[in-house]
């Protein structure tokens, strides 16, 4: 069985290995969370909000798009943020991007390097992603 690695990650041993056949559905079952509120300050606001969103998003996406996400992903710019709220909300740090962006040239940093974080909504997310036709 051929495997792919979670593409933005530079540490292969921390990547989420999936069969190549799982690649197209992978993006349909992952939700990107990139919104920040740097001007708002409240104790534990970010981790509480992330936890609430993770619980609610499954039903919302089922209702709107007719499928249930099994994994959330986000990217945190290393030079500006530490990802503390994601760590506090039990997200998993998977590695770093290579700084190329979607269309950047290979081997050349063209955008800021970011940490890649994942949050499994379903503990069986690997099996679900692999089994999706």
Summarize the structure.
With 133 residues, the chain is an alpha+beta fold.
Offer a few descriptive terms:
two-stranded antiparallel sheet; alpha+beta; disordered N terminus; 133 residues
Question: What can you tell me about this protein's structure?
Answer:
By secondary structure, this protein is of the alpha+beta class. The chain has one domain: Aminopeptidase. It has helices at about 25-30, 45-65, 85-90, 125-130, and strands spanning about 5, 20, 30, 70-75, 90-95, 115-120. Strands 3-4-6-5 form a four-stranded mixed beta sheet. A two-stranded antiparallel ribbon has the order 1-2. The longest helix is centred in the middle third of the chain and has 21 residues, at about 45-65.
List the helices and strands and how they pair.
Layout: E1 3-4, E2 18-19, H1 23-28, E3 30-32, H2 45-65, E4 71-77, H3 84-88, E5 92-96, E6 114-120, H4 125-131
Parallel strand pairs: 3-4
Antiparallel strand pairs: 1-2, 4-6, 5-6
Helices, by number, come to 4
CATH architecture: 3-Layer(aba) Sandwich
> Low-confidence segments, ≥5 residues, pLDDT <50?
1-15
Largest beta sheet: strand ordering: 3-4-6-5
Query: Which bin fits the share of residues in helices?
Result: 25-40%
> Could you state the order of secondary-structure elements as H and E?
EEHEHEHEEH
Number of strands: 6
CATH topology description: Aminopeptidase
Largest sheet: 4 strands, mixed
pLDDT averaged residue by residue: 75
Number of domains: 1
Q: Give the overall silhouette.
A: globular
